[in-house]
Amino acid sequence: MGAELLRLLLVHPRVTLTGVTSERLAGQSLGSLYPHLRGLSELTFHDLDAEWLAGACDVAFLALPHMESQKAVPVLRKRGQKVIDLSADYRLHDAADYMTWYKTPHVDPAGLAEAVYGLPELHRKAIAAASLVASPGCYAVGAILATAPLLKNGLARLEGIVVDGKSGVSGAGAQGRKVDPMYLYTEANENVQAYSIGGVHRHTAEIEQELSALAGETVRVSFTPHLLPLTRGLFTTASVLLATPLGTAELVDVYREFYAGEPFVRVLGESERPTTRSVVGSNYCDVTVVADPRTGRAVCVSAIDNLGKGGSANGVQNLNVLFGWHERTGLEAPPVYP
Amino acid sequence: MGAELLRLLLVHPRVTLTGVTSERLAGQSLGSLYPHLRGLSELTFHDLDAEWLAGACDVAFLALPHMESQKAVPVLRKRGQKVIDLSADYRLHDAADYMTWYKTPHVDPAGLAEAVYGLPELHRKAIAAASLVASPGCYAVGAILATAPLLKNGLARLEGIVVDGKSGVSGAGAQGRKVDPMYLYTEANENVQAYSIGGVHRHTAEIEQELSALAGETVRVSFTPHLLPLTRGLFTTASVLLATPLGTAELVDVYREFYAGEPFVRVLGESERPTTRSVVGSNYCDVTVVADPRTGRAVCVSAIDNLGKGGSANGVQNLNVLFGWHERTGLEAPPVYP
Amino acid sequence: MGAELLRLLLVHPRVTLTGVTSERLAGQSLGSLYPHLRGLSELTFHDLDAEWLAGACDVAFLALPHMESQKAVPVLRKRGQKVIDLSADYRLHDAADYMTWYKTPHVDPAGLAEAVYGLPELHRKAIAAASLVASPGCYAVGAILATAPLLKNGLARLEGIVVDGKSGVSGAGAQGRKVDPMYLYTEANENVQAYSIGGVHRHTAEIEQELSALAGETVRVSFTPHLLPLTRGLFTTASVLLATPLGTAELVDVYREFYAGEPFVRVLGESERPTTRSVVGSNYCDVTVVADPRTGRAVCVSAIDNLGKGGSANGVQNLNVLFGWHERTGLEAPPVYP
Amino acid sequence: MGAELLRLLLVHPRVTLTGVTSERLAGQSLGSLYPHLRGLSELTFHDLDAEWLAGACDVAFLALPHMESQKAVPVLRKRGQKVIDLSADYRLHDAADYMTWYKTPHVDPAGLAEAVYGLPELHRKAIAAASLVASPGCYAVGAILATAPLLKNGLARLEGIVVDGKSGVSGAGAQGRKVDPMYLYTEANENVQAYSIGGVHRHTAEIEQELSALAGETVRVSFTPHLLPLTRGLFTTASVLLATPLGTAELVDVYREFYAGEPFVRVLGESERPTTRSVVGSNYCDVTVVADPRTGRAVCVSAIDNLGKGGSANGVQNLNVLFGWHERTGLEAPPVYP
Fold first, then answer.
1. How many Cβ pairs closer than 8 A exist between chain A and C?
2. Which of A83, B134, C192, D174 is 20 to 30 A from B215, alpha carbon to alpha carbon?
3. What gap in Å lies between CA A217 and CA D91, rounded to an integer?
4. Domains of chain C, each with CATH number or no CATH
5. How far apart are CA B89 and CA B115, in angstroms?
């Protein structure tokens, strides 16, 4: 996630990268850790020192492990610095929810209460006025953007929402940290599996928080994440019982209206299908919806790059909103195909 | 599918391969089409001539395109020959169902009525007595084996069953026939997509036929297939509303009892997870079930090789049942890992 | 190749894309053929009409099949238009060489004689003054950049140069055209093979032309291309007998001096190794050289993106040189990792 | 390597697996470490105790890390037990060579002197009479089988042999041991790289030992290994200067004669090309040779499964030779395609 952020920020026309931090890699150059960045930056990793960071920049991106962000954020905010947090630490508004899903009390409940959930399609205005943006989890982006128009428009029955998430491996395996054998090439290649089965993946909490807000009442989803043999890409398939019988064309119109003007959501028509290949390397979310009249359901599908709209590129979109820049600034490059 | 069948039959200790047919490849040697079989067989492809075939063997496997099997089967059966059909032609018992899903009348309704659905875990006795076995579709095997114990035991609420199937590319792209660009390496690699969205995939009909029979009443499923970037492997995730609140341990016990004695279904326990890698190259189906008490659902997952239990190996198991051989005959080789 | 060119030109700050042509797709929109470009351009494909093209733009890129470019180029040049040709048609200076390797006479020998081989690292000045630039073949770029410093400096013995090229599948399988089964996912995935074995691949001619020019005498190389299971990336391993015994550090210095100031060649040091992953999506060529004192050889390795420095991005670099723009214009985006 | 050996031995009709050892996993069941073997064996890992092992079986396979085998082997041999060693410890006959390549003295020079290099195509008789068989390295098998007919028949000039080896990742990343980030999915997928550049890979020593023996004088090869993004498969491309000008047909005849009667080497003809996909999961080596008259060279290519003929399956072939069984016993299963 940090590497993808650097890739984007290094060529963002409004951004100067003033520092990068790492406890483990302090003193090393960016190019030595990330060979693709050789020659592209003179920066070396600095110790993770929130005080130093607060003095070094106008806005800080945090791509820290869970539990680390909530230690650094208060220091940065005390110094008046804006923060875009890519970790999970500030995504849930309710400290009790946080406790339920993360099994530990939040150390910065004040920050938690003020943080804005960083999905511009839902919270653009609040992000623009925020001092702390909590960029969403990758599965949450896929699930929320796939289903939001139905929930916002009262078209979904709230029981029985089933969400199946399928992610590439870059969503997980952090380079240089403790490596789960599951992420070895010989294990992950030519393999598919579900994990966190039974509704225990933490992105479930974000999905329910946001869908409940859209619906105006509590929404529960049955969410199952899967690990697929590809590097980048996240595909979401959501099955939603319709409150009213609607055909595919009508449903697509609802989506087109909901996402009208959005720079990074492309609503596909009846003869088109989202594929992760069409969005990889970009901030796009391709989405469509199909009616299944036999079962009274809508099948909602979305494709994102888990490191793009599901991660760092969405973080850059938040940056653009936060500073009042055009939202496509630094995010114009088309998806990388093939 | 045909290639995988040859791989298995060439070393099946009770089988002598007496002929292979192909309209397109008549006269060519097996090894010229399938370089992995070079030196393993002296056979050449013979014209697809059902009369010749009827005289050439005791049992015929058909791995023909849809609509072709129903032309060949009556000829073979008239000559008293047993047939194991790997195509979709004889899977639905009801000619009206066939018409609904395949949009054309069946040309051999008598055969359709007599054919046995070739899933030994459900129909072992009928297969043993059959003259025509219709080997199931790959997605159907994955979905049925993942959920059968719940439906058979009255533990599922019949509305709201959502099935998400994820298949490797070998489930689709036939070598030498008209190639959909979707199956090119540059399109399928590093890509995920849903297709036949909205409950229109024909395996849906098989799934509903078999689950309805298990439940004793009509079952509807919302099924969405996906194409994943791997050669072999099919993973199924089914979400089922529970009629009674049960925990994971209780559910696993139900599965263990249901599949007790099955030579090719491995029920995994609470700390284990099916992966396609663990079954590739074999006839195994690894399956487990997890309770999601928040939503009152069971999440049922299964992993098969789409060419194995989802195809040709399951066909060989049918052969073994049909001829009264030990079911593991010719299928003893462990999965190929990694 | 055309798709990659569009990806780059659509965001090139000095370029306005005024038209795209295709015989097969005339009338269709860019986004319908290339779903990743949905919403990024309003262009539709125009018939391949060189006269129309000549009036529509200041410079034309041709990404046509072999033999088609040499028909279009004379029309364009007669109208005074600059052309950057990505096909193989204008790469060999000598019409007799062309005849030898392409088995047919060239229809535009005048153009052939004037065309400049579009590798800026060797021919920057000539490209700047050219009206017709022949962008090199992907294997040729990899092989030439890997070995040029040795040949230019008289450090190589000219017999016994062995070059092994390894390319991803996007180097070959054109979408929508006749598809060789070799490029199907089920054939190309989890597979490696050599092809055009025995020195018959046509890029051999380019490699020898350019290395001979550098060495000042005829160079022959034994070149073998390979197809690997990845979408993008081309890795070259060249083994060269040294005329003088030199150690790795000395050799690396030779490379550093040769490529000093080059914006897209990164010479790696003794502890670093090129990987295709570090250059994918970019115009970079990462290169290094290691002495093998046991055999008196230097092993020269380079990594490029076959669609990048081995194709369209190098074409854009040629464009920048041709128009006197900074060479990194439109090519600043870092490689896409992971 | 150990997992692949278990896959083969569990269904070898002449073998009963009496024990498996592991220091790290003692007490665990086979199925808990290798989920594909669930239900296929009741064995649990036993401490690595050579004394116990000597009493437990008639023959022991060792798949230990380098340096560990040479500690266990003397204990086993003192007890009169036959050993097939899959490690590198006993492959070089000359203790000085061992010292040169492994930078440490061998602790069992007597064993080293008696061990037979376990490539049946070259040493069948010696293996049959051996008490200690050193199964070759994967790259060595590929390189030796690709070039042996030329060297044995005096057709090669001994200077200037260049060998390029390309291996899948299963050749390297051991599950559960210290993991090099290079073998993570996100690093190895969609990536190619050379490593051990400059003739320093230890398999070079084996290749030179065996080719020198065939040629009757010292042979030096310039060998470069590569890591490719596939799980199984090893492709070798060797470029050899011909001592006599021969055409492809003549060269293929030489190979056919050399390998006549070999159960696992398939010599392909002029219109055929080896691919790793055609041998994966088997003990086959597919090989061919093509003349390059322009450079006076032969290009020799071979395809094996690095865990098959390059590892455990070749070990089983050694077992069959050692015990006088038919060499195809337990190795009859065709390659797994696709």
1. 78
2. B134
3. 71
4. 2-136+311-323 (3.40.50.720), 138-304 (3.30.360.10)
5. 10
| Identity of the residue in B175, B176, B186 whose CB atom sits nearest the CB atom of C173 | B186
Query: What are the pLDDT digits (tens) for C97-117?
Result: 999 999 999 999 999 999 999
Residues in C touching A333 (Cβ below 8 Å): 7, 11, 333
Q: Which residues of D are catalytic?
A: 138
CB neighbour list of residue D269: distance below 8 Å, 6 or more residues apart: D252, D288
pTM: 0.97
CA atoms A165, A166, A170, A173: torsion sign: positive
Is B261 within 8 Å of chain C by CB? no
CB A280 within 8 A of CB B190: yes
The two beta strands, A297-304 and C221-227, are: unpaired
Burial letters for A32-41: b for 16+ Cβ neighbours within 10 Å, e otherwise?
A: ebbbbbbebb
Of the CA atoms within 13 Å of residue B12, those in its CB half-sphere come to: 25
Q: Directed axis angle between helix C203-215 and helix C138-152, to 10°? A: 20
Q: Which residues of A touch C40 (CB under 8 A)?
A: 334
The residues, any chain, with a CB within 8 Å of residue C79's CB and separated by 6 or more, are C51, C54, C55
D234 by DSSP, 3-state: which?
strand
Under an 8 A CB cutoff, do A295 and B199 touch? yes
* Cα gap B245→B255, rounded to integer Å: 16
Pairing of strands B265-267, B285-292: parallel
User: Contact, C6 vs C18, CB < 8 A?
Assistant: no
Test the D interface: residue of C158, C191, C337 with most D CBs within 10 Å: C191
Residues C6-65 pLDDT 10s: 999 999 999 999 999 988 889 999 999 999 999 999 999 999 888 898 888 999 999 998
Sheet (strand D161-167) strand order? D193-194, D221-227, D161-167, D234-241, D297-304, D285-292, D265-267
DSSP B61-123: EE---TTTHHHHHHHHHHTT-EEEE-SSTTS-S-HHHHHHHHSS--S-HHHHHH-EE--HHHH
Element of type H or E holding D88 = none
Cα atoms in the Cβ-side hemisphere of radius 13 Å centred on C267: 23
Tens-place pLDDT, residues B222-231: 999 999 999 9
Q: What count of Cα atoms within 13 Å lies in the side-chain half-sphere of residue C129? A: 4
Q: Which residues, in sequence order, are CB contacts of B25 under 8 Å at separation 6+?
A: B33, B45, B176
A28 to A2, B38, C275, C292, D180: CA distances (angstroms): 15, 54, 20, 30, 19
Does C220 contact D295 at a Cβ distance shorter than 8 Å? yes
Q: Which residues pair with C225 in a beta bridge?
A: C165
Q: Exposed/middle/buried for A97, CB within 10 Å: 0-12, 13-18, 19+?
A: middle
Checking DSSP bridges between strand A265-267 and strand A285-292, what pairing results, if any? parallel
**Across the interface, which of B40, B334, B337 has its CB nearest the CB of D334?**
B40
Mutate to test the interface with B, among C167, C185, C280 (most CBs of B within 10 A): C185
Secondary structure class of B263 (helix, strand, coil): coil
Backbone angles phi, psi at D234, to 5 degrees: -140, 120
Residue of B nearest to A187 (CA): B338
ipTM: 0.96
D51-64 residues labelled b (16+ CB within 10 A) or e (exposed): eebbeebebbbbbb
Contact yes or no for D255/D285 (Cβ under 8 A)? no
Separation between Cα atoms, residue A317 and residue A328, nearest integer Å: 7
Segment B245-290, tens digit of pLDDT = 999 999 999 999 999 999 999 999 999 999 999 999 999 999 999 9
Q: Under 8 Å CB-to-CB from A29, ≥6 apart: which residues? A: A42, A43, A44, A45
